[in-house]
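Please complete every field before forwarding. Incomplete forms are returned to the sender.

SECTION A: IDENTIFIERS
Entry label: holo-165
Bound molecule: flavin-adenine dinucleotide
Molecule representation: SMILES string

SECTION B: INPUTS
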Amino acid sequence: MVGFRVPQVARRRAGCVQVRCGVLIDEYQRSKAYKNIFSAGVCVAIPPVEATPVPTGAPKTGYMIETMVSAIVHNIKDELAGQPVTTKATWNAICLADMGDTGAAFVALPQIPPRNVNWFKKGKWVHLAKIAFEKYFMRKMKNGTPEPIYEKYVLKALGIARLIR
Ligand SMILES: Cc1cc2nc3c(=O)[nH]c(=O)nc-3n(C[C@H](O)[C@H](O)[C@H](O)COP(=O)(O)OP(=O)(O)OC[C@H]3O[C@@H](n4cnc5c(N)ncnc54)[C@H](O)[C@@H]3O)c2cc1C
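SECTION C: PREDICTED COMPLEX
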């Protein structure tokens, strides 16, 4: 993945971010410089997985980011209750990447190597699965149920969880 620059508003806070790579965080998704700032998604600083001829960043995908956000919600709740933060995100990844007339699906647990699970398949079925997933995802969001109980148990049976607690 190309190396994105993080928004200027984050870059202005000295000690909070690396110039290119994003917000430096601890294992609880908190900025290392400002513990009351949490960070999730593409703005998190993750070191490049390997040296490449052109600058690249570590891949970040939707489910992986959902695990980060879930951890942040638990940790903010704990902070507001005056408790120490304890929740870590798994950074697990399940991805359906649509490429038009074909697509690629992968499961990477966790997304950043070294991995416990590394599964990849390519084919037109991924394109169709992505269309079905989009409809399922939008329905979940409209109903306000981002993680239905049946989804949680199916993923758990496959060894895919959002949080380390
Ligand atoms: C081409 C492409 C294909 C991808 N395909 C897949 C896929 O198939 N499956 C998958 O899981 N992941 C995929 N990803 C990755 C996934 O889309 C991203 O990892 C994810 O969207 C990042 O989420 P985020 O919330 O961190 O950032 P974003 O989704 O980029 O959200 C950041 C938001 O912040 C806003 N913003 C920026 N600066 C400011 C500012 N100063 N003030 C206010 N708002 C601001 C932006 O407008 C944006 O809406 C793909 C990414 C790309 C680029």
